[in-house]
Design a protein that fits this description.
Elements (H helix, E strand, L loop, with lengths): L7 H9 L3 E4 L5 E4 L8 H22 L5 E8 L8 H16 L20 E13 L4 E12 L12 H9 L16 E6 L4 H9 L12 H15 L5 E5 H9 L17 E6 L2 E5 L1
Antiparallel strand pairs: 1-2, 1-8, 3-5, 3-6, 4-5, 4-7, 8-9
The structure holds zinc ion.
Amino acid sequence: MQELPGWETKARHLLECGTYLELDADGHVVKSNLCRERFCPMCQWRRSLRVYGQTQKILSFLEPQGLAYLHLTLTIPNCSAADLKAQCKWLFWRSAALFSDRLYGKSDQLSKFCHFKRSFKGVLRSLEITYNPDRDDYHPHLHCLVAVRPSYFKGRDYVSQETLRLLWTGYSAGMFGDPPDGLWQVYISRIKEGERNNAVAEVAKYAVKPFHMDLDIEGYKKVLPVLHEAMAGRRLIQLFGVFADAARQLRINLNDDQEATSSQGPTRKFSYVGGHYREVF
Ligand SMILES: [Zn+2]
């Protein structure tokens, strides 16, 4: 980041991230110089823990409704750096359409498969972008946690993975003439009771883990600006239906990474010097 023109400030923010922390009596961070840059490993780690905890709270809140959950992954063909921003935009628009009523109109022959929407009670949608250095292309995709009525699996509203794939890809993917494009994929699986925590963690993980990409300096210099541009101004996590309602009632904003504002009582201040945190008096 230090070697990228115009990224000097970001690089300094990352370098200094978390060197000052102020904790309340419960150990919560109430003040800090955490940088909140999207690519900061420390801030990403904190964010994924926070989203994980908040999502668990939402699921507990919804418990009385007796919902079942699906893990749905929506993908589109890999794309070049030049197309990534547009592809992400399309992915967001298209998935919002899939979860709302405006996917296919009544006159459309695909509308007869849209009954599944009666059972989809809520969706938590999270963006992930991976990069393939061998092909030099990007793979934006969405992880979704879907709340359904328990009767979904045996009822009339059930859709198979193949049907959902058809609805997701529409006419571009085969059934009505065009050659199928194998890279359009939809993966859907039921989340068993004991696997729910793993599924939440999968959805809560951060959008890109650039420093896990195992690139050399030249690779990073190429990839970071592309990812930054594609993600700029995007809400990485969005809620629909019962998830959105629950978050509103619980006053949870999954995209807000500020500390708890009110600190009552005494705090302890720490600063990171010479490889250790030391209390500052
Ligand atoms: Zn940071």
